[in-house]
Amino acid sequence: MQFCDDCGSMMHADGDEMVCSSCGARVPKDEDRAAAFVSTEEQTDDDVIETEEGADFEGKPTAGDVTCEECGHGEAWYTIKQTASADEPPTRFFKCKECGYRWREYS
């Protein structure tokens, strides 16, 4: 992503130039600078944790520090997500390995 030196707005590609969306300023594309960026086409989803129902992978296993409220089993899968502002602790989402019951824990 490139920003306009004149007004600070985001620029978009137009052939061999970058064009400002606000003021219309044009600058040549800097190929060296573009090589430093990662496009979404090059990114992988290797680090994505699938949490939808029926997914093959349910997250990370707990170390026995939780108890299912439904069946009393002591092991569950869990994922961690930031559900509030960045200065708040993340939320842990659990799925019981025995009965599949889901719950969350706020830190």
Which features would summarize this protein structure in a list?
107 residues; N-terminal domain of TfIIb; 2 domains; four-stranded antiparallel beta sheet; 1 helix; 8 strands
**Helicity, as a percent range:** under 10%
What is the N-to-C succession of helices and strands? EEEEHEEEE
Poorly predicted runs:
none
* The first-level CATH class name of the largest domain: Mainly Beta
Number of E strands? 8
- The name of the CATH topology of the largest domain is N-terminal domain of TfIIb
Structural class based on helices, strands and sheet pairing: mainly beta
Q: Tell me the span between the first and last alpha carbons.
A: 36 Å
Give the overall shape: rod-shaped
Mind telling me which CATH architecture of the largest domain this is? Answer: Single Sheet
Radius of gyration: 23 Å
- The largest beta-sheet arranges its strands as 1-2-3-4
Sheet with the most strands, sense and barrel status: 4 strands, antiparallel
Write down the domain tally: 2
The total of helices stands at: 1
Task: Round the mean pLDDT to the nearest integer and report it.
Answer: 77
Strand content: 25-35%
